[in-house]
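Re: weekly structure request thread

Next one in the queue (214 aa):
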Amino acid sequence: MSQSSPGSDVPEAVVIEKVMKQNYVTLVKVLAARIVVIVVLVAVPIALYRAGAPNSFFLVLPFVPAMFLLVLTGYRLWGGVRLIQCKKVLRHYPLRFHTRVVKKGSLWTEYGNVFEVKISTRGGHGAPLMKAINAAGRRRWPGGTEHGAWIAGDLDFGGVMIVPGSNAMLFLNPADWDKSASRREQAGAERIARAEQAGINKRNWRKPILLWGA
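Done, posted below.
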């Protein structure tokens, strides 16, 4: 069930099943585009060779970016795609509307763009700084967050952000996991148990995805 802060202008509630389906479709499109490029880079030199082109350095050169792109795609799937994690969080936490999300910075990695964001609620103070990555593997920052976004989770541990309109979904973790450790330790047994069930009780950025540039 979607909730919001009193007095805020809340957009139409999102349907989680629809959001998940849309993000899976986005992931398939991202992968399909990469596969097409890889196939072209491999197929063109082979076709030219069979047509009688001499076996030269320039003929085999396209295989290098093709292999690089293949490896990079594997990295993106391993470290950057967070759809399963998001689904688990959404199973254990309701969506609440936060009135403003501000992107503070961005870091390029092989696994996807990692954003630093501040999430605030009207009337609230001390908006936490979070790190976010697009769950479906896209690199660009979704538009429309300046008007707010749906958040599920416990921001001392992590969570999920869904942008109204586009239904873009981002996985969240505290920007400084160690600095926020004391708040998690004081969270209480119920919050800690819930975070464990949702899979956000541990640092989710152990992979190189968020270690670079930290």
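Residues 82-210 form one domain. Residues 23 and 136 are 6 Å apart (CA to CA).
Next request, please.
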